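cron nightly-structures :: item 1 of 1
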Amino acid sequence: MKKLLALFAALFIVTNVSGQVKDYELGSSLLQRYNQQTGFYDLSDPESVNIKVAVWGYVRFPGKYIVPIYTSVLDLLSYAGGPTEAAHLDDLRIYRINPDSSQSLIKVNYNDIMYESELESKEIRLPHLEAGDVLVVPGAPRLYTRETVSIIVSILSALISLTILILNITRN
């Protein structure tokens, strides 16, 4: 009887640990709040339900965020330090896995909010965040002087080597 009770208790503990949804949290853990890891930001609210979302791409602080459920996409973009200069704000994307395991993509254009004096449409619906969402801020990599010089020198050295090879072949 004791073995059966111990087996039942072990099975109960294992199923509760493995069956938890990892993208929702109730309140916040003070231990996690002060255990800052690279790319992991805990901005949770102890009084609210918190969700885990991710920010990828051309923002100052990409990574995984624990935020309150009432956080908007603009708030999340602000928490991530804002977009970098190379970010394309006309093509922000939210990747979402739906409860039926299908995937959806929500495209958002923030250029009209950031730079236009008048909105293109009078009614803008900002998408709300859900647990497990991934906000992707696309952009174009910028070439700096060092990279440009490196590319030019590589091409030039290949052309010089090819010229020397052709000259050596034609002399013989």
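cron nightly-structures :: done
The CA atoms of residues 93 and 156 lie 40 Å apart.
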